[in-house]
């Protein structure tokens, strides 16, 4: 009789090897980054590598070699025979104290989404500064708002403070200035690239607290993630113009941002 000194695993009635990485994946403790690769290049590569390094240090007590990550992405693209892809890099620790492993997943390249409608939900991500793999809460709310005809969930703190989208950062336009919510949220790579390009172009932006009952006062809104920048047409019952010129200018600015060779 098996004494279970080693894990015993069945999937759909089939015995499978209890690989330590498989068990780590099931445990849901890890982090990742997502990027769109075109012609073997990506925007904000250094920001992606810094994100992976700092999160690995925080979660597992060791850094992550950026050159090795680049090499693994490059290898995956080469072995798959593609130069365009949606790429995700995951970092796990199969055995506590045993060192980390990185997993690279390639999927078909994703198009930039169209205009987005947002439904507010009372939820904030734990350890929101990390792009961690514990996404049940945001996935739950995202599925629910999509079933109600919305495109994205807007995560709002219990006191009504706006934080971020379920899978995006949200920005608001006030005159000629971009306002980002100051609540705890992930510093998305697209957001950071856009802020960098705005600084280079001398365009103003800042962070400040934004309450849900304030959003109607803004001239326009947008969301951004690895897929790009999309105008927001609606937050709950508040409508925004589809063709707001400042959002179009931000999209052009981001489109002109440099690409980095992997």
UniProtKB/TrEMBL annotation:
Gene Ontology BP terms: 4-aminobenzoate biosynthetic process
A Pfam family of this chain: Aminotran_4
SUPFAM superfamilies found in the cross-reference section: D-aminoacid aminotransferase-like PLP-dependent enzymes
InterPro entries referenced in this protein's UniProt entry, alphabetically: Aminotrans_IV, Aminotransferase-like, BCAT-like_C, BCAT-like_N, Class-IV_PLP-Dep_Aminotrnsfr
Keyword Transmembrane (UniProt): no
Keywords, comma-separated and alphabetical: Aminotransferase, Lyase, Transferase
Molecular function as annotated in GO: 4-amino-4-deoxychorismate lyase activity; transaminase activity
This protein's record includes keyword Cell inner membrane: no
GO cellular component, one term: cytosol
Family: Belongs to the class-IV pyridoxal-phosphate-dependent aminotransferase family.
Protein name, per record: Branched-subunit amino acid aminotransferase/4-amino-4-deoxychorismate lyase
Source taxonomy: Bacteria, Bacillati, Actinomycetota, Actinomycetes, Kitasatosporales
């Amino acid at each position: 009789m098996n004494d279970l000194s080693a894990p015993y695993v069945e999937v759909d009635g089939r015995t499978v090897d209890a690989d330590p990485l498989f068990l780590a994946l099931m445990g849901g403790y890890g982090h990742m980054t997502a990027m769109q690769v075109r012609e073997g290049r990506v925007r904000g590569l250094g920001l992606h590598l810094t994100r992976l390094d700092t999160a690995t240090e925080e979660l597992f007590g060791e850094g992550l070699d950026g050159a090795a990550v680049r090499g693994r992405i490059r290898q995956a693209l080469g072995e798959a025979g593609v130069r365009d892809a949606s790429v995700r890099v995951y970092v796990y620790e199969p055995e506590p104290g045993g060192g980390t492993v990185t997993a690279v997943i390639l999927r078909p390249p994703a198009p930039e989404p169209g205009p987005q409608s947002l439904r507010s939900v009372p939820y904030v991500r734990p350890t929101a500064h990390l792009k961690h793999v514990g996404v049940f809460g945001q996935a739950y709310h995202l599925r629910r708002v999509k079933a109600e005809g919305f495109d994205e969930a807007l995560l709002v703190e219990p006191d009504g403070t706006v934080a971020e989208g379920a899978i995006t950062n949200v920005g608001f336009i006030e005159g000629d200035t971009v306002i980002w919510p100051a609540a705890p949220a992930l510093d998305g790579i697209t957001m950071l690239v856009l802020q960098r390009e705005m600084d280079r172009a001398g365009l103003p932006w800042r962070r400040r607290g934004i309450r849900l009952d304030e959003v109607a006062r803004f001239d326009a809104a947008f969301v951004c993630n690895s897929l790009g920048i999309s105008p927001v047409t609606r937050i709950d019952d508040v409508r925004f113009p589809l063709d707001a010129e400042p959002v179009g200018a931000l999209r052009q600015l981001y489109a002109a941002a440099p690409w980095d060779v992997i």
